[in-house]
Amino acid sequence: MNRTILVLNGPNLNLLGEREPDIYGFESLEDIRIASERCAKTHGLGVDFRQTNDESEIVSAIQNARATANGIIINAAAYTHTSVAILDSLLACDIPIIELHLSNVHKREEFRHHSFVARAATGVICGFGAYGYELAVNAMAHLIAKADAS
Ligand code: DQA
């Protein structure tokens, strides 16, 4: 059976590579997509890689993932810290969820320390820059294999 990971990216992540590179690095989101797909392929997994600046599109993508994906890796960007709607849609999912951030949000401003997404996440990865996406794909492969075995 085909296994797919939804990798969902929130607002301003389309500007990666140009946006505050001292914090977020020089890799573009396209570079990250390619690396994520390559990494997933080594586990026999497919990736549905998306970015949107629109909160309602994130909610709809999460709702769709209930029927189409085996796990969700989500960098909700600024919505991480504000969106109960995204949390509620994640709580409606019965598949593993990994919260991801390029930067170490706990080292940054106080308002980034709180995450609504974390309440629905199996685990959280932050602070590893673009490489965090590969870490998340590897961790998700482990979670999906575990779910398949049970
Ligand atoms: C981010 C961290 C968020 O606080 C911020 O709003 C972002 C990116 C990260 O990947 O480090 O846009 O999610």
Explain what you see.
The protein has 150 residues and is of the alpha/beta class. It has one domain (3-149): Dehydroquinase, class II (Rossmann fold, 3-Layer(aba) Sandwich), CATH 3.40.50. The chain is built from 5 helices and 5 strands, in the order βααβαβαββα. Strands 2-1-3-4-5 form a 5-stranded parallel sheet, sandwiched between helices. Helix 4 (84-91) links the parallel strand 3 (71-75) and strand 4. It is globular, with a radius of gyration of 14 Å. The protein starts with a strand and ends with a helix. 1,3,4-trihydroxy-5-OXO-cyclohexanecarboxylic acid is lined by residues 12, 75, 77-78, 80, 101-103, 105, 112.
Structural class: alpha/beta
Lateral arrangement of strands in the main beta sheet: 2-1-3-4-5
Summed over residues and divided by their number, the pLDDT gives a mean of 97
Give the distinct bound molecules.
1,3,4-trihydroxy-5-OXO-cyclohexanecarboxylic acid
CATH class: Alpha Beta
Which radius of gyration do the C-alpha atoms yield? 14 Å
- SS strand fraction: 15-25%
- β-strand number: 5
What is the CATH superfamily?
Answer: Dehydroquinase, class II
**Major β-sheet, in short?**
5 strands, parallel
Number of helices: 5
Name a few traits of the molecule.
Rossmann fold; 5 helices; 5-stranded parallel sheet; 19% strand; binds 1,3,4-trihydroxy-5-OXO-cyclohexanecarboxylic acid; globular; alpha/beta; 150 residues
